[in-house]
Design goal:
The chain is an alpha+beta fold. The chain has one domain (about 5-164). About 40% of the residues lie in helices and about 20% in strands. It contains three helices and seven strands; from the N terminus they run H-E-E-H-E-E-H-E-E-E. It has helices at about 5-60, 90-100, 130-135, and strands spanning about 60-70, 75-80, 110, 120-125, 140-145, 150-155, 160-164. It has a four-stranded antiparallel β-sheet, covered by helices on one side. It has a three-stranded antiparallel β-sheet with strand order 1-6-7. A hairpin with a 5-residue loop joins strand 6 (about 150-155) and strand 7 (about 160-164). It is elongated, with a radius of gyration of 24 Å.
Length: about 160
């Protein structure tokens, strides 16, 4: 014969477990919604800051400077690629991953390809001399060191900008 108290404790335990699962699921959902956009914001700021620096060099009479930009830690490298050329140089693994995209408008991709914001696997940077950048290595990749990318920019008024 069951006592009334045993049934209530059993129901209370089940109800508590369900509540715990709901709270944990909600916490994970909120964490994803907070941290995923942060990665997207950082990637978007990288693109904006790089394009502004390239435009400044392209519009100046003569310039040569280095910039340091932030990227999410998941991005191991940024790679400049000329999709009109085949692989050349040291970055074969990166080329094989990146060449699957084959977006003719893009000239900069993030490696690994799924490491940046999901909407931003690659971007098109205007006014850069992609032929000169990828002359010795296609793709030409720069390593992300502790969330920072250093890029040297050389420009002359009206000519395409070289990055290294």
């Amino acid at each position: 014969m069951r006592k009334k108290g045993q049934l209530e404790v059993s129901f209370g335990m089940v109800f508590s477990i369900i509540l715990i699962i709901v709270f944990v699921a909600f916490a994970v959902f909120v964490a994803v919604k907070i941290f995923l956009p942060a990665k997207c914001v950082t990637t978007g700021l990288f693109k904006t800051d790089l394009q502004e620096s390239v435009d400044r060099a392209w519009n100046s009479e003569q310039s040569s400077f280095e910039i340091e930009l932030s990227l999410p830690g998941e991005v191991k490298k940024i790679c400049f690629i000329d999709f009109n050329k085949t692989h050349k140089g040291a970055f074969r693994e990166e080329y094989e991953a990146i060449s699957k995209f084959d977006y003719k408008d893009w000239n900069l991709l993030f490696y690994p390809t799924n490491s940046a914001c999901s909407e931003q696997s690659g971007i098109a940077i205007k006014h850069i001399d992609i032929s000169a950048i990828t002359k010795n290595s296609n793709p030409y990749c720069i390593t992300n060191i502790k969330g920072k990318i250093k890029i040297k920019i050389d420009g002359y008024y009206g000519k395409l900008v070289k990055l290294s």
